[in-house]
Design brief:
By secondary structure, the chain is of the alpha/beta class. Helices cover about 35% and strands about 20% of the residues. It is built from 13 helices and 17 strands. The strands form four sheets. Strands 4-12-11-10-7-5-6 form a seven-stranded mixed β-sheet, with helices on both faces. Helix 3 packs antiparallel against helix 10, helix 4 packs parallel to helix 10 and helix 11 packs parallel to helix 13. It binds pyridoxal-5'-phosphate.
């Protein structure tokens, strides 16, 4: 494999062109050009093993033929008609997604943050519609990430995302895993508790045993809604359809996005019939939500996930990945503090004093793409179609990187 290096020929036009982008991201001087499965090539012809998958987005890997043809065929028919009419792929997607997940209703939007916004608006309006307008408060957790729009940002429990954007109101943050704190804060002014079954951006931290079922019971006692933010953990990523399934808990409302469209922007909120009246016509919507193109893409993703048993595959390949990462911990005991995650959402937790971003850079130069999550975790969120050989290749490269650089 062509190993990229920091001295790879730079693209002469890149600095000039990138100057016109709003500088809210920190990007290395790499322009990705094409992908195939779990491999990406940049404009210099360097090959990368992509264990990021667009941050848990490219469920089927890059350029999956069934996704490509579904998108192309739909683009040749109709892209978007607004929500003044039905469109066929969206109707089929709603039917397929609800049948697969066991919920009754699906609302479609375009991103994770929009799915969270919709879920929180649904929770508030559910109670105001019953004359309980004092029931507006949301409980969320430290270390959580729910998105960047104002409502989702208010729910996000990390100062690095929140600082400078206040006031962000209406949400109380509690320590993740602290059931007693939930029980004492869950009063009749609370409309919803929102949680990630695995803190994703927060560092790939699965909920501790008993926590989620305890929150479910507390919500039931107080009649508050339990909202699962499955934007990162949903659609089979953890080896179950939902991350919540690992805890045998069913949320009242589920927010989905990232992996649902396999790379085409789409978000969804799922709920049961009992909540179908919370957002009546006119109360919420989005111009692009449920558009035919994104719906066709999501239909193709679901169809491949189901016909190729990719949820089960995520469980078995996730177990392999966890085992391989466990080997890294054994070989680099001073550099690796641990391994955690569920299914194909795994993290190698680095020892204190080792900066994940630095290791990430070395891994990238050696041709393997990963992301950092939280303060000390290297996150693996590969395509559900990743092969065991590719997982081995990625972990072997990381083994070398840790040996040489940490
Ligand atoms: C990524 C993410 C979001 C936000 O999704 P966007 O599509 O970036 O708006 C929300 N919640 C969780 C758990 C996420 O991982």
């Amino acid at each position: 494999m062509a190993t990229p290096s920091p001295s790879a020929p730079s693209l002469p036009w890149l600095d000039q062109t990138a100057r016109h982008l709003y500088p809210n991201y920190r990007q290395p001087p790499i322009v990705m050009q094409r992908g195939q499965g779990s491999v990406l090539w940049d404009m210099n012809g360097n090959r990368y093993l992509d264990l990021v998958a667009g941050i848990a987005v490219a469920t089927l890997g890059h350029a999956h033929p069934k996704l490509v043809s579904a998108i192309a065929e739909q683009a040749g028919r109709i892209l978007q008609v607004s929500n003044h009419f039905y469109n066929e792929p969206n109707l089929r997607l709603a039917a397929e997604l609800t049948e697969w997940t066991g919920y009754d209703r699906a609302f479609f939007c375009n991103s994770g943050t929009e799915a969270v916004e919709a879920a929180l608006k649904l929770a508030r309006r559910h109670f105001t519609a019953q004359g309980q307008s004092e029931r507006y408060r949301v409980l969320a957790f430290d270390g959580s990430f729910h998105g960047r729009t104002m409502g989702a940002l208010a729910a996000t429990g990390q100062s690095k995302y929140r600082d400078g954007f206040g006031p962000l109101v209406g949400v109380t943050h509690l320590p993740y895993g602290d059931l007693a704190a939930v029980e004492s804060n869950l009063k009749t002014d609370v409309c919803a508790v929102i949680l990630e079954p695995v803190l994703g951006e927060g560092g790939v931290i699965p909920a501790p045993p008993g926590f989620i079922s305890g929150v479910r019971a507390a919500c039931d006692r107080c009649q508050a809604l339990l909202v699962a933010d499955e934007v990162q953990t949903g659609v089979g990523r953890t080896g179950r359809i939902f991350g919540m399934d690992h805890y045998q808990v069913r949320a009242d409302v589920v927010a989905l996005a990232k992996g649902l469209g396999g790379g085409v922007p789409i978000g969804a909120v799922l709920c049961d019939e009992s909540l179908a009246g919370a957002l009546p016509p006119g109360s919420h919507g989005t111009t692009f939500g449920g558009n035919a193109l994104a719906s066709a893409a999501a239909l193709a993703v679901l169809s491949v996930i189901r016909s190729e048993h990719l949820v089960e595959a995520a469980a078995s390949k996730g177990a392999l990945l966890a085992e391989l990462l466990g080997g890294l911990k054994e070989r680099h005991p001073t550099r690796v503090a641990g391994v955690r995650g569920l299914g194909l959402l795994q993290a190698l937790v680095l020892a204190e004093g080792i900066d994940p971003t630095t290791i990430l850079g070395y891994a990238r130069n050696a041709g393997v793409l990963l992301t950092a999550a939280g303060k000390s975790a290297l996150r693996f969120s590969p395509a559900l179609t990743v092969t065991p050989e590719e997982l081995r290749e990625g972990v072997n490269v990381l083994d070398r990187v840790l040996g040489e650089n940490a």
